[in-house]
């Protein structure tokens, strides 16, 4: 290109030097661009300094030609000058390079063309074609060639050869073809650690990216790459730093070929002695004291074993602490001063606090049905207010937990100084549903179902539903309405009417009632609620062999009950959580003073914790979500009521408690095996989930639980295990589980299927 540039300039000088019309005293009348097809005329004129009305200059034209060539769009440029009516007319003749519209791969067997394009950044997120409109440039093609070789090297292939050719399919378009000789894959058969005495070989191997072949670990190939070997040395050093060995020296790994496979030898040249934390100090902090920072991580203390990982962890905690107050520009740089004689390491944390960030604008996009106001009121950020990271995380969580959005993307953008724009992009899910279907369970048998529901009514966040279930042993009619932000406060007013009949194994229950509840958000992530229920409850058709505890419930009664609860929800998504926890305590009190005829109370406490295994400080990928759930219930009658009403007892077993057991089977039963219910319950659920997609999760579970009368018999808890799936649909989560009893007793089935809708816990 350099040769081409000087040739063009030389010809230009000859042309302009022989043209008696062109003199330095004349002005440019007009600049014309000729020959461009893909590059806009305005773009070319932008890089030409000769403008109409300016003095004509050969030096400026030569400079313009250089600048145009630097753009990389042209393979030839020439200029001529002719006399116009009022001055000189300059004509720039350009010949554009062809555009590379596609890249083709040949010879690639181990890596597909789609995979190569993805790794090279040639395709968009949802595109299948090549995302290319690059001018033909050998420099660009050489960079792709290097990337391909590096990609194969990373995958463990040695001797990979890459060449390319260019085919013009039109004067303005070209296709680049890369011919790949993949070479041979280098596999690691053995890894040997030498010179280590303070840290075991097993612990060192755990941090290596390079791994041995292992049938036990289902690792049938172990690729060898220079990049991984380099990273391994750094990982070994980090491991020693974590244990306080700051004088460690690791030699470059030695690779030995043996019978078509490779042995890698890592040698620890020097381990040194273990260091302890010396003086710990903080410089540049004015908002927080040194004591405030040290409280964040008690493991970083003078005299304790030095640990670089803990230093880095404290840095992250300090930055987060500043972020909680809106100082998102804060930066922390730790300085380590080593004292070899005393084997101590002073740590000086240099802190730049920066300025507090404020929200300039909140921009909402993607919402079609949902009003902006409905979204804004869930945000814990507001315009002109302080921006901080905790409020950002809380805002994302609240929007997800409305249930109205399939995806929520909230991104802050620094716009000027300490101002931040918050861009909220949502993808709405279907919130209206008409469904007709059928279901079957061991309790209700065959049931037909019809329901109409609408969430996010008129984009306000309100929801309502009408549902009907009918079968030989069940009849449900429910009418529900939830009014969000009632009285323009962060509270929900819920109203419900219902008519429900259940034919159980030994009796029939028929309930007709009305309930109302007001729950309000308090203290950022906490909610409190208070509600009232009035219900007519009729127990009839009691079987002759039913136990006395059931027969005593015969007749019609009235329940007047107050319900109160307090809860905190820190789950990132209440439908398919990945991390966070949930806690609630619910108390119900029924009595004659509440317009009822029964006196009893119930207290139920629940806690659930979710943990993404990929958050563990490990170098391996663990795409699983672990969760644990505990529930304890306590109930009793008082006053004129001698026995807890049958419909308000705890029935342990079934799809919402201990899976693998039928409804109530894991609690007290009569001589025929029919559930009697209990006034005490204790349940533990453990799950390990794998997300196939964002909408589908496979799970394995272990459940332990039991129900009793007037006592807790922990040693008598029933146990089960099983598998299941969770599917997130517009109606909400659908779950299907198959559980097996781990302590099956005589006369019991070995397993049970469970189907349900809504979150499990």
UniProtKB/TrEMBL annotation:
Ranges for domain POTRA come to: 26-97, 275-354, 357-429
List localization entries: Membrane
Q: Kindly indicate where the leader peptide sits in this chain.
A: 1-22
Coiled-coil features, chain-numbered ranges: none
What are its GO cellular component terms? cell outer membrane
- The yes or no answer to whether the keyword Transmembrane is present is yes
Which domain of life does this protein belong to?
A: Bacteria
Task: Check the record and name the PANTHER family matching this protein.
Answer: SORTING AND ASSEMBLY MACHINERY SAMM50 PROTEIN FAMILY MEMBER, TRANSLOCATION AND ASSEMBLY MODULE SUBUNIT TAMA
Keyword annotations for this protein, in alphabetical order, are: Cell outer membrane, Membrane, Repeat, Signal, Transmembrane, Transmembrane beta strand
Q: State the organism named in the record.
A: Desulfurobacterium thermolithotrophum (strain DSM 11699 / BSA)
Q: What is this protein called?
A: Outer membrane protein assembly factor BamA
InterPro entries xrefs:
Bac_surfAg_D15, BamA/TamA_POTRA, D15-like, OM_assembly_BamA, POTRA
Give a GO biological-process term: membrane assembly
Chief place of localization:
membrane
Question: Which is a Pfam family this sequence falls into?
Answer: POTRA
